[in-house]
Here is the input.
Amino acid sequence: MRVPALAIGDRVAHGWNPEAYARLLGIAYQPPKRLSPDALARRLDRVLEATHALVERFDRLQMDHRPPERDRSVRDLAYHVFRLSVACIDAMDKGHMPHAWLGETAPPDLVDGPAVARYGALVRGRLQGWFAGAGGDEYARVLDVYYGPQTGHELLERTTWHAAQHLRQLHVIAERLGVPRPETPLDELYADLPMPAAVW
Here is the structure.
């Protein structure tokens, strides 16, 4: 019940997969332009860099705030941005991604924004090393992801816009709480990504 699915008779398409939906319905579908894996890796790093720059400005009390749109603290939301990013390369290494990885909450020692930002810096370093050593075949492999089979390329694309979407939410929260926001070119970060229309 956590992911969308479309079923016609005994044929089913799971997860956010417009191409599979089109095949199921027998209609033509022209997928939008997709960024290459290298471009996505660079974009994800920029999203994480921007998340780091914003999150380190939140104090301990602000990190406990829960926006009305979702029952998740700022601390857990910020941690989630970095955790979902490292989960992407864990999935590529292991061949699968369980939903539980993305349900993890921030460890108790990450009490304020600077602490979560330090965790984010470690994640960025790990991702940079992984992407530097990855071959092109890494992105063609089909992975067993909790919302359905995905190629490494598809998972990296989803991970990048997923992280960017949460950065978008963190900027909204920062504005509400009076946290000064860094000058981040958000439109450039979101360009050519299949971002949801709604912030929440």
Notes: The longest helix spans residues 152-177. The mean pLDDT is 92. DSSP finds seven helices and five strands in the chain. The longest strand covers residues 5-8.
